[in-house]
């Protein structure tokens, strides 16, 4: 009769710990060392057996006929010594310090040495820290390292925030294949397909115009022109300089116009089809290998795809926020929906909805007794509609009240107001929050100090209306 599962697991963990502690002790006391890894002038003594057991990369190296399999010293190129030290420390101890500064380097080296446990930890670390400032870099890293889990997570993050991410300069450094991977997704959070066309044409004109223009016929297959109004297709797409100069693009657009009239172009698409079960059995009997067959079937070209994007199904709601939670009101159905419950939303806050439907709250105070020099701070929160929760953003650099909130391009402006210090001085200063870098700065001051005013944003301009001055 075997041992209960709990005891078996306990014995296994004990043996693993005993083995790992023993290996680390031998490394620390220079026992049975038979290999030295040389990384840019720094040497790491270790055991071949340990490296081979943990890494298919080293196993293949030491079991091959390569020179490294016979030499005591192994030189490694394109590896940072500090990263190599951290990975060796993990191999011998299961301890790994990952930070935002070193995660990409550790990830790349773990991928090169084929150490799945480190790879998985790095993927989870990066997924949890996806944000506007790093989503494109993480997406490209996932593609480069052929990590589907990371690339898909980053792509979904980008698609959900497409309006914001597509304003980042880094977006226009994407390769054609990277761009297609994003804009071909059904989960793109856009209200109009025209947005995709305009982003693509801006991407073409940003750099390497000639080579990118050659990629347009393939990229156009991922733009759903059938979702665009006929007038937009005629006045903006067909008349675009890069489109009307390309017979191939005009031919594709003609297919779209024909489809809008009910005339569909059918193309032959190759499809890989496995041989039938009966054929497979016959092949096995005859000693042959069951192979896949390539067949052709009729289908619509990609440019005729009219599947609606995720953002086209969204409803317009009125968001009402109090100090205890938030409620969303649907004016069409005359119904209210519970959005979030929170105890961190301060009273007397000021809210802002950006044109990308991001919701921010600023103002409201908390008193920090540990900070004697500057005990008062102002909240700055953003609503995460995916998790129905409020995210703490970098707080306002200086607490103030009775100010206004506005937005333009990628920035949020805290305008005027009163200083929350002795004397309550009326302010003319303007704080500026960069939504891409997540940093506060200062913008040009107002012509005069004002508080209790209204602020309206329209077409990347911010208007200040009414209010009281310091002399009133």
UniProtKB/TrEMBL annotation:
<keyword id="KW-0677">Repeat</keyword>
<dbReference type="Pfam" id="PF00651">
    <property type="entry name" value="BTB"/>
</dbReference>
<dbReference type="InterPro" id="IPR000210">
    <property type="entry name" value="BTB/POZ_dom"/>
</dbReference>
<keyword id="KW-0833">Ubl conjugation pathway</keyword>
<dbReference type="GO" id="GO:0032435">
    <property type="term" value="P:negative regulation of proteasomal ubiquitin-dependent protein catabolic process"/>
</dbReference>
<feature type="compositionally biased region" description="Acidic residues">
    <location>
        <begin position="289"/>
        <end position="299"/>
    </location>
</feature>
<keyword id="KW-0217">Developmental protein</keyword>
<keyword id="KW-0880">Kelch repeat</keyword>
<dbReference type="InterPro" id="IPR006652">
    <property type="entry name" value="Kelch_1"/>
</dbReference>
<dbReference type="GO" id="GO:0031397">
    <property type="term" value="P:negative regulation of protein ubiquitination"/>
</dbReference>
<dbReference type="InterPro" id="IPR030607">
    <property type="entry name" value="KLHL40_BTB/POZ_dom"/>
</dbReference>
<dbReference type="GO" id="GO:0048741">
    <property type="term" value="P:skeletal muscle fiber development"/>
</dbReference>
<feature type="domain" description="BTB">
    <location>
        <begin position="33"/>
        <end position="100"/>
    </location>
</feature>
<dbReference type="GO" id="GO:0031674">
    <property type="term" value="C:I band"/>
</dbReference>
<keyword id="KW-0963">Cytoplasm</keyword>
<dbReference type="InterPro" id="IPR011333">
    <property type="entry name" value="SKP1/BTB/POZ_sf"/>
</dbReference>
<feature type="region of interest" description="Disordered">
    <location>
        <begin position="277"/>
        <end position="300"/>
    </location>
</feature>
<protein>
    <submittedName>
        <fullName>KLH40 protein</fullName>
    </submittedName>
</protein>
<dbReference type="GO" id="GO:0031672">
    <property type="term" value="C:A band"/>
</dbReference>
<comment type="similarity">
    <text>Belongs to the KLHL40 family.</text>
</comment>
<dbReference type="InterPro" id="IPR011705">
    <property type="entry name" value="BACK"/>
</dbReference>
<dbReference type="InterPro" id="IPR015915">
    <property type="entry name" value="Kelch-typ_b-propeller"/>
</dbReference>
<dbReference type="Pfam" id="PF07707">
    <property type="entry name" value="BACK"/>
</dbReference>
């Amino acid at each position: 009769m075997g041992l209960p599962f709990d005891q078996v697991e306990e014995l296994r963990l004990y043996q693993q710990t005993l083995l790992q502690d023993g290996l680390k002790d031998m490394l620390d006391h220079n026992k049975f060392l038979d290999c030295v890894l040389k990384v840019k002038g720094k040497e790491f003594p270790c055991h071949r057996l340990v490296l081979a057991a943990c890494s298919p990369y080293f196993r293949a190296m030491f079991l091959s006929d390569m020179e490294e399999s016979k030499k005591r010293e192994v030189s490694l190129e394109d590896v940072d010594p500090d990263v190599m030290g951290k990975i060796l420390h993990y191999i011998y101890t299961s301890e790994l310090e990952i930070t935002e500064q070193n995660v990409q380097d550790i990830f790349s080296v773990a991928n090169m040495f084929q150490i799945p446990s480190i790879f998985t930890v790095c993927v989870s670390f990066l997924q949890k820290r996806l944000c506007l400032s790093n989503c494109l870099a993480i997406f490209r890293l996932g593609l480069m390292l052929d990590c589907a889990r990371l690339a898909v997570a980053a792509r979904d993050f980008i698609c959900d925030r497409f309006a914001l991410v597509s304003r980042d300069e880094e977006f226009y450094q994407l390769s054609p294949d990277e761009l297609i991977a994003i804009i071909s997704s059904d989960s793109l959070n856009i209200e109009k397909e025209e947005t995709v066309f305009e982003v693509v044409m801006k991407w073409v004109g940003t750099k390497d115009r000639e080579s990118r223009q050659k990629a347009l016929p393939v990229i156009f297959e991922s733009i759903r022109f059938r979702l665009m109004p006929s007038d937009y297709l005629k006045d903006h797409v067909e008349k675009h300089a890069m489109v009307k100069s390309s017979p191939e693009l005009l031919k594709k657009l003609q297919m779209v116009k024909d489809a809008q009239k009910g005339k569909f172009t059918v193309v032959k698409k190759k499809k890989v089809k496995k041989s039938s079960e009966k054929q497979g059995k016959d092949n096995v009997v005859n000693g042959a290998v069951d192979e896949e067959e390539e067949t052709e079937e009729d289908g619509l070209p990609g440019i005729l795809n009219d599947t609606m994007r995720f953002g086209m199904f969204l409803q317009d709601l009125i968001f009402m926020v109090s100090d205890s939670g938030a409620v969303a009101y649907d004016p069409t159905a005359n119904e209210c929906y519970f959005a979030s419950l929170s105890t961190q939303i301060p009273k007397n806050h000021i809210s802002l909805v950006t044109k990308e439907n991001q919701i921010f709250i600023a103002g409201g105070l908390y008193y920090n007794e540990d900070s004697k020099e500057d005990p008062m701070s102002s909240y700055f929160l953003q609503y995460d509609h995916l998790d129905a929760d409020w995210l703490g953003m970098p707080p306002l650099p200086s607490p103030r009240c009775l100010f206004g909130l506005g937005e333009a391009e990628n920035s949020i402006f805290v305008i005027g107001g009163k200083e929350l210090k002795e004397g309550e001085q009326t302010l003319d200063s303007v704080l500026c929050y960069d939504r891409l870098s997540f940093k506060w700065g200062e913008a040009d001051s107002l012509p005069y100090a004002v508080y209790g005013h209204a602020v309206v944003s329209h077409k990347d301009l911010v208007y200040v209306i009414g209010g009281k001055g310091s002399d009133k």
